[in-house]
Amino acid sequence: MKKIFQIGLLRGIFGQILGMALGYGLVTALQLLSGARLRAEPAWVVGGAFSALGFLIALGAFTDWFRMAKGEEVPEPEDIEEPQDGRRYWGLSYDHKVIGVQYGFLSLFLLVLGGLFGLIFRTELLAPQLQFLSFNLFNTLIGLHGMVLIASILMGIAAVSNYVIPLLIGARDMAFPRLNAFSFWVAVPGALILLWSLALGGFETGWTGYPPLSIRGPMGVQMFFLGVWFVGWSSILGALNLIATILRMRAPGMSMFRMPILAWSVLATSIIALTATQLIGLSFQLVLFERLLGMGFFEPSNGGNPILFQHLFWFYSHPAVYIFVLPGLGIISELLPVFVRKPLFGYKWVAMSSLGIALVGFLVWAHHMFAAGMEEYLRVPFMYSTLLVAVPTGVKFFSWTATIWQGNIRLRVPMLFVLGGIIIFLLGGITGPLLGTVSTNLHLTDTYYVVGHFHATMFGGYVFPFFAALYYWFPKITGRQMSEKLGKWHFWLLFIGFMVMSLGQMRIGMLGMRRRIADYDPAMGFQLPNIIITLAGFMVALSVLILFINLYRSARFGQVATGNVWQSRSPEWQIPSPTPAHNYPAPLRIVGEPYDYAGESQRYVEVDGAVPAAHAAD
């Protein structure tokens, strides 16, 4: 038993259970003592909040801060000796590399869970009428599929950012290591609370949580709101840390326009996350309070306005699309020069385009509300601002095309996923204007066309680049390379399966099939397309299974990765793999341009006056 409680995650889960029991019992006792009518919902909400605190306290996330508050001296994070075996990944660590791997584990876990939810309700849609799900469970699975995968994406972005960004800019760690650890671990109880919604009646609102349906729905809605609220804190605090790290901890000689392009993308993403995430937290918190305390924010019968919720929600949730895809686009721009052996075309324009997308992304939210009863005179300006996003996005596509042109392309697995991401993100881009233009939006809104377009944007902008990053930096993390053969099976099954699924969704959407509907009329001809889409979804799931097999086999038996396996100019490939405990054994300086693959003799990194033996040509 003692050994079990040495594992931080298990200790935290035990603390979460105790916290839930304490919060639930406290509210119930207060109701009994005051003579008030017993209500379970306040007890569950307070219990949920206490459960997250119980998790973090039992884990030890507050221990150092409590000691500081008492005036005690605590060691610097870099001076704390951590276990060097697998246990460090299951407990509190201040090493950005360990935290990056922890984010990656959580992201992949949530990816599998959200994907399973999707496969379950897609199986229900193989035939008209209900087969094995109730309407409430069908809608709950759709909502959990969406929000769990959004959490998975946020964790995946944090995984890449935490592990790679300090290495790319020559830093020893993140600016605030303790806050970095807290940012990860606060997401874990948040994800568990989100999943508890299934046991408390679920929620019928989809992932958006629109009132008044969410105000009148079952108790599971409250766990949905509370779980997202805690995951939002993880995103906000992580963004703050990344901004401070990028702006203040770059190696000498690394000016802003000598930074790797991925750092620019993560900086733009972090600005959005820091400033916009609070809006979704606020909107969900207001509905939570309205249910608990009877406040009239959004319920029309109490004088509320449900359209206000949509403004608050989408002011975050459309910029959130760029939180999801900007790091992915940065990964594409980061890896492309390595595999075509050419400089990144228009580096400064690509860097500034990330900030441009972040800025314009705050001006487009209301195109989600063209059919919601919004004032008509607002439609046209939001239509134009939505279409304007194509300009900075187009800069990236022109850069990628020019970089590939006449390059010496090496079709390794990371490059396959980069090219797949470009193609699928282009599909998401060219199908977007139909939803940004008022006349076509009113026809297509809330159809499966929106589902197909959104999935193309997410897969092209995040999923394919994330897998590219996983294959590319896996040797740096583990010291072993992943199997190229299994990687190609993973890529082709995923690419073909996704294209069939997404194009099929857009087709039946244009024919009029509504999203979030558990049944459909067989006379409309929707059954065969739904069978094809579902089979394609299982093909995507098979590809992910191959990824996990590849991860396991490669981590244990993969070819040992020695030296600069990709012949990259980037700083992290100038040191041994796996990455040493404190990253760089000697201070490094930036003396050249990051993507000057046209002239291999021109250095980018200089370590303590020596030229790294890693700039060799192919």
From TrEMBL:
Alphabetized InterPro entries for the sequence: Cyt_c_oxase-like_su1_dom, Cyt_c_oxase-like_su1_sf, Cyt_C_Oxase_1, Cyt_c_Oxase_su1_BS
UniProt similarity note: Belongs to the heme-copper respiratory oxidase family.
Cell compartment(s), UniProt: Membrane
Main location: membrane
Name of the protein in its database record: Cytochrome c oxidase, subunit I
Domain of life (superkingdom): Bacteria
GO MF entries: cytochrome-c oxidase activity; heme binding; oxidoreductase activity
Entry GO CC: membrane
Alphabetized UniProt keyword annotations: Electron transport, Heme, Iron, Membrane, Metal-binding, Oxidoreductase, Respiratory chain, Transmembrane, Transmembrane helix, Transport
Gene3D superfamilies named in the record: Cytochrome c oxidase-like, subunit I domain
Task performed by this protein: Cytochrome c oxidase is the component of the respiratory chain that catalyzes the reduction of oxygen to water. Subunits 1-3 form the functional core of the enzyme complex. CO I is the catalytic subunit of the enzyme. Electrons originating in cytochrome c are transferred via the copper A center of subunit 2 and heme A of subunit 1 to the bimetallic center formed by heme A3 and copper B.
